[in-house]
């Protein structure tokens, strides 16, 4: 386990945690034994669950770019405030990234029903063991399209506190205001653009092939009239200057390279600062959620075999 300096804004909320922190060799659930899990649950009942995808990110970034975001934010939050995280759910809902048969894009997608069943089983297993507060740390935008029914089912069925956090930037700039150099028309938060390239640079620069990076803009699919317009990777398009129309588009229909935006201004320093801002923001939120009264009324996971 690496040690990260706790920022001043978090110190008042983590005072007295030193002895507890010293008991564990790692905050990753998979690194611990059941003895460690029992010790943890005597003190805290919260756990982070990173989840994202395995999908093409253009010619210069690795397939698990979104998962890197979820894993790194979860790991940093765990270090900052002393909470456990699981290994990542590394595959997600990515049908739009499959491209044609035999085109070797590498994306592994789950059907929405498969993803929801996977999330449900992971959550019910954790609740079964004694965790009452489950925080899914999501790094992939398309998971948002399908996740709500299972989050509601878990809450209604068990009474556990279920949260879904989205520490990334697409159209919503949020806590990263002022950090990215690209103007809005160069979509700094979109697929394999300035932000994601910077974050992978910060995480492992050897995974970034900047000699392959290129600035490309999204466009409407060929089947739509020119009276429609598209600027980024969202499923909606503009018509007469408004975004009321939504289409189930595949990624290659509106961007050939897989890159939406301009990755050429990316730096590892921007990626590190983005991770810092996201992690500290999520950590403060998680600490607040630890104060919420939670009563689980259905803990045992009986439906655990087919």
What does this protein look like?
The protein has helices at 11-14, 18-21, 34-41, 65-81, 112-129, 148-158, 194-203, 268-289, and strands spanning 46-51, 84-85, 133-138, 161-165, 228-229, 236-239, 242-246. It has 306 residues and is of the alpha/beta class. It has one domain: 3-Layer(aba) Sandwich (Rossmann fold).
Quick overview of this protein structure:
It contains 8 helices and 7 strands, in the order αααβαβαβαβαβββα.
CATH homolog superfamily? Creatininase
Q: First CA to last CA: what distance?
A: 37 Å
Counting structural domains, the number is 1
Helical fraction equals 25-40%
Task: Provide a count of the helices.
Answer: 8
Structural class: alpha/beta
Unreliable stretches = none
- Main CATH class: Alpha Beta
Strand content: 5-15%
CATH fold name: Rossmann fold
What descriptive keywords fit this protein?
7 strands; 306 residues; alpha/beta; globular; 3-stranded antiparallel beta sheet; Rossmann fold
């Amino acid at each position: 386990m690496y040690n990260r300096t706790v920022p001043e804004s978090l110190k008042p909320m983590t005072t007295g945690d030193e002895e507890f922190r010293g008991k564990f060799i790692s905050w990753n659930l998979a690194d611990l034994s059941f003895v460690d899990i029992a010790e943890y649950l005597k003190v805290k009942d919260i756990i982070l669950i990173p989840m994202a995808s395995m999908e093409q990110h253009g010619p210069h970034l690795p397939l698990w770019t979104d998962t890197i975001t979820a894993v790194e934010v979860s790991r940093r939050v765990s270090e900052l405030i002393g909470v456990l995280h699981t290994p990542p759910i590394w595959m997600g809902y990515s049908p739009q990234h499959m491209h044609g048969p035999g085109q070797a894009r590498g994306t592994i997608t789950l059907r929405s029903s498969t993803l929801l069943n996977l999330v449900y089983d992971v959550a019910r297993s954790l609740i079964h063991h004694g965790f009452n507060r489950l925080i899914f740390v999501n790094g992939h935008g398309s998971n948002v399209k399908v996740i709500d029914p299972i989050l509601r089912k878990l809450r209604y069925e068990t009474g556990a506190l279920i949260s879904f956090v989205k520490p990334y930037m697409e159209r919503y700039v949020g806590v990263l205001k002022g950090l990215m150099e690209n103007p809005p028309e160069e979509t700094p938060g979109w697929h394999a653009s300035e932000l994601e390239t910077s974050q992978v640079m910060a995480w492992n620069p050897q995974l970034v092939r900047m000699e392959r990076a290129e600035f490309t803009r999204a466009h409407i699919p060929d089947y739509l009239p020119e009276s429609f317009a598209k600027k980024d990777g969202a499923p909606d398009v503009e018509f007469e200057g408004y975004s009321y129309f939504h289409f189930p588009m595949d990624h290659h229909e509106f961007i050939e390279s897989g890159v939406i935006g301009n990755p050429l201004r990316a730096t590892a320093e921007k990626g590190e600062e983005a991770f810092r801002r996201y992690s500290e923001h999520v950590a403060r939120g998680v600490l607040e959620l630890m104060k919420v009264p939670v009563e689980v009324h259905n803990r045992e996971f009986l439906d655990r075999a087919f």
